[in-house]
Specification:
The chain is mainly α. The protein is 66% helix and 0% strand. The protein is elongated and about 90 Å long.
Length: 429
C-alpha cells in the first residue's frame, strides 16, 4: 500500500502450495521465489501507525485488560477491607488499653508493640546501604512516573522501542539528583558521617550491576555476531552521559541532602541498649514474610504481565498506557497496604527490627516477577539457545532488581508513616 511516493504498509504471506520439506537429513535444493503486488492507498504517511494502535483497542483485547483492572481493584478492596476491619479494630483496642489508666499501666507489664517503644526507632544496621536503597528506589519511582507521563501524552509510537529506551536513559540521568538528595538526607538524619561513601554507593547501587550485566550480554552478542550488540560509539555516549550528567547530579543532590536542615523527630526516645527479640515461629522470619508480601501485589498485575512480556520479548504491540498506569497505581497501593499490615504484625510480637524487613517485603514483588520469567520462558515463548536465554534472564534480572528497589522504597515509606502515626497516638515515656 503506497501513496505514490512512500510505502505505508506491507503484508507478507506465504503460498502453502510451494512449501518444501527440509526436515530430512539429506540435502535438498530449494528454489526461493516471490511476487510483489502494489496497491495505492489514501492513508497519509503521518498516520501509518494508527492501525497498530487501534489493534490494541479491539473488544477482545480490551475485555482482558479490563478484567485485569477489575481483578486488581478487587484485590485492593479486599486488602483495604482487611485493614479497615481487622487492623484498625485491633489498633483501637490497643489505644484504649494503653491510654485507659496511666497508673494501672505503670503497675502492669507492657506487652505488644508499645512494649518496644524504646527500640522501634533504633536505626537499622548498615545505614549507608539502607539509605542508598531508599534513595535509588525514590529515583526509579520518579523515573517511572515521568515515563508514564510521556507515554500518556503520546510521545511513544508502536514499534519504536528505541524512543522508550532513550527516554528511560535520559530520565534516569536527569533524576539522579533525587537519589543523591534522598540518600544523603536520610543518612544525615540517621547519624551517618561518611556521606561521600554513601553518595558513591547510591550512584553505583543500580548502575553497577546493570553495567556488569550489560557488558556480559553485549559480549555474548558480539561473539554471536548479532545485530543486538550495541556499537562502540553508542556505548561511549551512554558512559559520557553517566559521567557528565548522572554522577555529577548524584553528587550535587548528595551535597544538598547533607546540608539540608531538619532532624529525625521520633515520637519515642530510643533506649541505650537494644531489647532482645523473643523467639518467634518460622513463619514470622524474613523469607516467609516476603512470600506473603509479594503474592498479593503480584496477583494484581500478573494478567497484564503477559502482554508486557509479549510486547518486549515478542512481536505484539502494547499501546494502552492508560490501563498500564492504572495497574501500576494499584500495584503501589497494594504494596503499601500489605507492607503496613506485616509491619504491624511484626511489632505486635515485639520484633522491633522493621526497617529492613519493610524494604524486603515491599520489594519482594520483584522476586515474583522474576519467577514469572521462568514460566513465560518455558511455557509461553519460543526462545532457545544460549544467547536468547542469557538476554532474556539477564535483562529481566536488571528490570526486576529495579522493581525491587522501587517497591522496597514504597514499602518502607508506607511502614514509616504507619509506625510514626501509632506511636504518636500513645504516651511513651
Amino acid at each position: 500500500l503506497l501513496p505514490l511516493d512512500r510505502v505505508i504498509e506491507i503484508n507478507v504471506s506465504t503460498d502453502p502450495l510451494r512449501t518444501v520439506d527440509i526436515t530430512d537429513e539429506h540435502s535438498v535444493d530449494v528454489e526461493f521465489s516471490y511476487s510483489v503486488k502494489w496497491k495505492e492507498t489514501h492513508i497519509p504517511f503521518d498516520r501509518r501507525m494508527e492501525k497498530y494502535s487501534r489493534y490494541s483497542f479491539l473488544p477482545q483485547h480490551l475485555e482482558i485488560h479490563w478484567f485485569s483492572i477489575v481483578n486488581s481493584c478487587v484485590t485492593v478492596l479486599l486488602l483495604t477491607g482487611f485493614l479497615a476491619t481487622i487492623l484498625m479494630r485491633v489498633l483501637k483496642n490497643d489505644f484504649l488499653k494503653y491510654t485507659r489508666d496511666d497508673e494501672a499501666a505503670d503497675e502492669a507489664e507492657e506487652t505488644g508493640w508499645k512494649y518496644i517503644h524504646g527500640d522501634v526507632f533504633r536505626f537499622p544496621r548498615h545505614v549507608s546501604l539502607f539509605c542508598a536503597v531508599i534513595g535509588t528506589g525514590t529515583q526509579l519511582f520518579a523515573m517511572v512516573l515521568f515515563v508514564f507521563v510521556l507515554a500518556l501524552v503520546g510521545v511513544f509510537y508502536p514499534y519504536n522501542r528505541g524512543a522508550l529506551l532513550t527516554a528511560c536513559i535520559v530520565l534516569y540521568a536527569l533524576t539522579a539528583g533525587i537519589a543523591g538528595y534522598v540518600a544523603a538526607n536520610n543518612y544525615r538524619l540517621m547519624g551517618g558521617e561518611n556521606w561521600v561513601r554513601n553518595v558513591l554507593l547510591t550512584g553505583f547501587l543500580f548502575c553497577g550491576p546493570m553495567f556488569i550485566v550489560f557488558s556480559f550480554l553485549n559480549t555474548v552478542a558480539i561473539a554471536y555476531r548479532s545485530t543486538a550488540a550495541l556499537p562502540f560509539g553508542t556505548i561511549c555516549v551512554i558512559i559520557i552521559i553517566w559521567a557528565l550528567v548522572t554522577f555529577p547530579l548524584t553528587v550535587l543532590g548528595g551535597i544538598a541532602g547533607k546540608n539540608a536542615k531538619g532532624e529525625f523527630n521520633a515520637p519515642c526516645r530510643t533506649t541505650k541498649y537494644p531489647r532482645e527479640i523473643p523467639a518467634l515461629p518460622w513463619y514470622r522470619s524474613t523469607i516467609p514474610q516476603m512470600v506473603m508480601a509479594g503474592f498479593l501485589p503480584f496477583s494484581a498485575i500478573y494478567i497484564e504481565l503477559y502482554y508486557i512480556f509479549a510486547s518486549v520479548w515478542g512481536h505484539k504491540v502494547y499501546t494502552i498506557y492508560s490501563i498500564l498506569f492504572i495497574v501500576f497505581i494499584i500495584l503501589v497501593i497494594v504494596t503499601a497496604f500489605i507492607t503496613i499490615a506485616l509491619t504491624y504484625f511484626q511489632l505486635a510480637v515485639e520484633d522491633h527490627e522493621w526497617w529492613w524487613r519493610a524494604v524486603l517485603c515491599g520489594g519482594s514483588t520483584g522476586c515474583f516477577i522474576y519467577g514469572y520469567c521462568f514460566y513465560y520462558y518455558y511455557a509461553r515463548s519460543d526462545m532457545s539457545g544460549f544467547m536468547q536465554t542469557s538476554f532474556f534472564f539477564g535483562y529481566m534480572w536488571t528490570i526486576c532488581y529495579g522493581f525491587f528497589l522501587m517497591l522496597g522504597n514504597i514499602g518502607f515509606r508506607a511502614s514509616k508513616l504507619f509506625v510514626m502515626h501509632i506511636y504518636k497516638a500513645i504516651k511513651c515515656e
